Every structure is written in structure tokens, then in C-alpha cells.
Amino acid sequence: MADLKYRLIPYGKANNIHVPINIALIDSKDIAACKISDTDAMKAVAKELGEPTGISIFDMDAVTTTSDGIMIPGAIIKMAAADNGSINPDFGILPMAEIDYSEEIIKEEPHLKQWDINYKGRKLFRGPNPKDKIIPVHNVVITGRASNNNSATEMMNIATMEEILLPILGQMQIMTGGDIVTGYTGEVISVGIGMTVKELYGRVFPTRQFGAGDTAHGSGIYAKTLKKSIPCIVADKSILAKYTLKALKAGMRAGVEIGCSPAVIAVSKAYGADVDIDKITPKALEELQSIGFTKEYINKKTEKLSEEEIIKRADEIIPGVESPSKIKSTEITQIKTLKVK
Fold first, then answer.
1. 0.90 cut: is pTM over it?
2. How many whole angstroms separate alpha carbon 2 and alpha carbon 255?
3. Residue stretches of the chain with pLDDT short of 50
4. Is residue 252 part of a domain?
5. Measured between alpha carbons, how far is 96 from 131 in angstroms, rounded to an integer?
6. 154: burial class by Cβ within 10 Å (0-12, 13-18, 19+)?
7. 3-state DSSP call for residue 20?
8. Does residue 203 sit within a domain?
9. Contact at 8 Å (CB) between 202 and 127?
10. Residue 124 domain flag
């Protein structure tokens, strides 16, 4: 017998939000230490908790990308949805595809230049290979009442239709015991999550559909309403600023190599980095303008700040999250262990 460690944000109240299902996060190293498979580890957690649960396994030595193309350390490598102590064997569990490094993929996905510059030699995971999926279109797993969607960045109780948004940077903060913000997604993030980049086996899309400067939503003035009232757990904005700056220093440009999300535009403006308004499509600009990111605002020159100043003042520079509450992730996360063999 061995003790498997995992992190749990339980169903119910978490600081100022409601969590609709259990959220269980496992480090792949803790699974390896128990000498069991990823699937067996997920099944053990499912059996232990019993109730609707989203389960994700992380490789903290790998890398991934945010929806707007910022490369960050750590990656989800497998996701599951569990209910009544079990995982549906057909569509309740799904691995993420490892992306092989090649000159061709760097050419097709220029935001991956960050890979060479900032994370050379590390494995890259984003979303699943469509060949591994039974459920079409969506990168989702479902068991009973539990749904784990968009490669484990949104979870839902299907019976109550309650949802929670879990951007990948926030989950990395949970895995490392760092600072997070709980609140409601609001209009800015609702728009921002649509400003994606083209990726093969991406977190949301399996093929290269919507490039930097475009919007995956195409919802016009209604884009800001899409996730507005949904609770979320995100990284402290200083962390978001840190990794956005790292991308900018690697030569990434909003709307060119990386997405034109409000966060990327805001940090770019503060850093004095170019935002090429001509690279932003009319559809994307319409959504941005609905939250105040007009052509005039984007083009307006502002005081250039240092990296340190931007990180320190991230809360005032980067918009987003309604009713935000900054806490240590450890305040809502339980470290659990269970016996496995």
C-alpha cells in the first residue's frame, strides 16, 4: 500500500464563490511515487470522493499555453470526470497530446518561439488528440453529473447547470500553493477568453482555427455576457503580468504572435510594446470595444513602466474579475491522501 497525495477544492463555498463540483488535482510525481498508473490514481480519487468531481493530473516539469498563447510552466496531461465513485470508461477520461517540437510547428504557430527561448527542451501539452475522443467537437469528459471541459479549465455540474471557470494559471497557483483570486468572470474575461491563437490539439480547438488578432467567439457586443456571472478561480494578477512580460520579452506581439486579449493589450501598453491595431480583426475589435478597448484607447500612448512596476501595479493595470478577493490558494485547498495499491 502507498499514500497518494492530491489537492482538493471541495464542493460548496470557497471564499466568496460557490464551487459546483469537487475539484481534485494530482501531481504526476505523486502518482509515480505510488507506482500506479494515471488511470488507477484517478479511479482511486473518484472512489474516495464519491460525489461529482473533476480530476486533473499535472506534469509540473512540462509546459503549456494559455488560451491567448502565453507559454507557462506546468501542464495538465490527463483529465477525468467522476460521479458515484466511478469514471465512465468510454468518455469520462482523456489524455492530453504531447506536442513534438519541430521547425514546422514553430512556423505554423509562431507563439511557440517562446518554447525555444524560455523553456527549451521541456515537454509541451495543451489539449487532446481528436483520435482519442468519443465526444465530438468539445474537449470534454463526462461521468454522471460531472463535466470537465476545455481540457480541464471549466467544470460543471450537469444536473444543476452550475459552472466554474479555472484558467490554467490559476490551477498552477493551486498546485504550488501560490496566490489566487476568487470572484466572478465578468465582462473583460468573457471577451478575453475568446482571443485565442491557432493551435494543433489546442485546449479548446483541435485544429488551427482562430489566429492571433481574431476572436473565437464572434459574438459582437454579446461576447462580454458569455461567462459574466460564472464563478472563477484565477492567478493573482501579478503572476499573469509576470508571464505576459516574459512572452513580450521573447518577442511576442499582441494580435500578431499572441492573442489580443485585454490582459495582453494592457500589459503591452504599460511595457511600451507595440499593439498593431491593423492586425486585430473587425470582429475582435467589436468585442474589445464593448468593454472599452477602443481603437483610440489601444493606440493611446501611456507612461512606460518597468517590469517590476508592472508586476507591482498589476491589479490596476490588468482589468478583469468581478467581486475579486485575493487569497492564498491554501485557504481553500485541502491536501488529502488515500491508500492505493
1. yes
2. 49
3. none
4. no
5. 11
6. buried
7. coil
8. no
9. yes
10. yes
**Which distant-in-sequence residues (6+ apart) come within 8 Å of 28 by Cβ?**
38, 57, 58, 59, 60, 77
**Residues 196-243: pLDDT tens digits?**
999 999 998 888 989 999 999 999 999 999 999 999 999 999 999 999
Residue where the block lists cell 475522443: 133
Residue type, 135: I
Quote the CA–CA distance of 295 and 277 in Å, as a whole number: 7
Please list the residues that pair with 329 across neighbouring strands: none
Tally the domains of the chain.
1
190, 255 contact by CB (below 8 A): no
**Whole domain around residue 32: which residue ranges?**
2-177+330-340
Residue 87 is assigned to a structural domain of this protein:
yes
Buried b (16+ CB within 10 A) or exposed e, 72-101: bebbbbbbbbbbeeebbeeebbbbbbebee
Distance of alpha carbon 244 from alpha carbon 309, whole angstroms = 14
The pLDDT tens digits of the residues spanning 30-75 come to 999 999 999 999 999 999 999 999 999 999 999 999 999 999 999 9
